[in-house]
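U., I forgot to send this yesterday:
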Amino acid sequence: MLDTSENKTETSERERHLQLRAERAEKHLAELLSTLPYGYVSINSDWIFTFANEQAIEATRRQQEPLLGESVWSVWPEVVGTNVETQYRRVMETRSPSHFEYYSAVQDAWVELHVYPIEDGIGVYFQQITKRKRAEEALKESERRYRAFTELNPQLILIADTQGQVTYANQRLLDYSGLTLEEILGEGWRKAVHPEDELRVLQGWMEALARDIDFEIETRIRRGSDGAFRWFWVRGLPVRDEQNKTLYWLGVCIDVHEHRMAVEDLKKSQEETEHQRLELETVYRTAPIGLALFDPVEFRYLRLNDRQAEIVGLPMDKILGKTLTEIAPIEGLNEMFQQVAQGNSISNQLLEGELPMQPGQHRYWTVNYYPVYGPDGTVRAITAASLEITAQKQAEIALIQSEKLAAVGRLASSISHEINNPLEAVTNLLYLALNHEPLPPVSRRYLETAQAELVRVSQIATQSLRFHRQTMNPARVDPKELIDSVLGLYRGRLANSNIQVVSKYKSTKNILCFENDIRQVLNNLIANAVDAMRQGGQLTLRSRDGVDWKTGRTGVRITVADTGHGMSAEIEKRAFEPFYTTKEMCGTGLGLWITRGIVSRHHGYLALKSSEKAGRNGTVFSLFLPDQENPSNAAR
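Result:
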């Protein structure tokens, strides 16, 4: 009996110990459930609440009312007939857990529920997820709006991930390219890019991804309807989160084809315009007539071409900005410009005068002056075109002089021919008179003088005829005879001018030439020498055999030297220019120019040396005529 009592005692102690442990475990579980961030309740098979933590009590707003021992359907009547009741009963019957969301119209809140089977009932975990659901709804709404925006947007839009793979393309892009969404995803977009642009676009895209920077490029994208390529401006921007981390890339393709074509057309037009401008500038600069532009108030040079600078005789930079009267103080010119400034044009006007940069040269121009109007109708500038006709006018004067000389020559030839017969008769009569006896000594002396002068007249007439006659073939002539025949024409003038003649003839060769041409050369040289010695002096004439040291040719050298006033360096430099003369209206400026031409046709040359130094003043002309070649008759 004692043993039995002891066993009962031990059993009772063990039961109490187990009960205490159970109570402590239950207490710990209750404490644990109370600390959960969401509500928890346990419901028995009779749908009575057997446990509820503080969060559950607060969520059901039953702080002042008992919850334990109450029926679920009486506490939450609003869930009757809803998915909540369905899920509760399903878990109670099937003993399988369930997870679902429920919207409570009473509380205007969303609740997330986890239902698990427990001993003699079910356990329910729940928490309010209204904020999350509304955020999700807002996100979905935003996505719906964004998708609607992208679909309605007239631009081509696409989205790519951080690896550069396309994940979305709007319908506009698909319609334009003719590709499906499946074809364009990933790197399928490259099919729509022009083959010549593909590598350039890909390299730019990869660089933007690597550096995580904006992407911008212009490329051609194929149009699916006809295969034509159009220019698009493509821009890609990284979309970042609050931590500035790139989430994805948003790309927009804007059609800029018309703009690009307009720019290219404008560029071509500008290039063509620039090309035409350069052509016109070249024509302007190299035009054979002088062109200039003046302001209409002070008549200052605004621009001019090279020919106008040559006419003025100054560098272009020395002319620009100067007034008309500073550059060309010609009588009547300023008045012409005043007329043009008032809107009147001047066409083909003859202008003549001297320019300060080239004094002593009387020059002629044909000028045209026109006003340049601005948009408001006022004169903004004056354009001037000047064609120098000095050579033409001098040629006209020379032609008139030449005609006069030709007429005089013909008259002299005619006179010389006509007086030969009377001269011959008078010569015979003088001969008979001198041989008539008896004749007083004084009379004889007078007759002899008359006979000598008559011979001189006969020689002059003969030389005049020789000047006028032209031969068609060259002939060999003695240099001494050539020089003396010309000198004979000037003996009276030489004597009256107190000019002493010194002749030295050492040449042993005859000259192969057109006699009258060389006679004209010598006549021009001797005439110039006589003109240079108005106060007297010495005229030296020499001939000798010579050699051209440049070519080694042999020939005859004739020298005509005077002790006149000489020439300045400027005059000596221009002595052989056509129409250049220092004799004003008494000369044509063609003598030495024609002389050099005649010498050139004879394959010779004419050299000049002059000095104005006191005691050494004078001029020397050296004429060399070769004897190896025939002169050119065709050139005459």
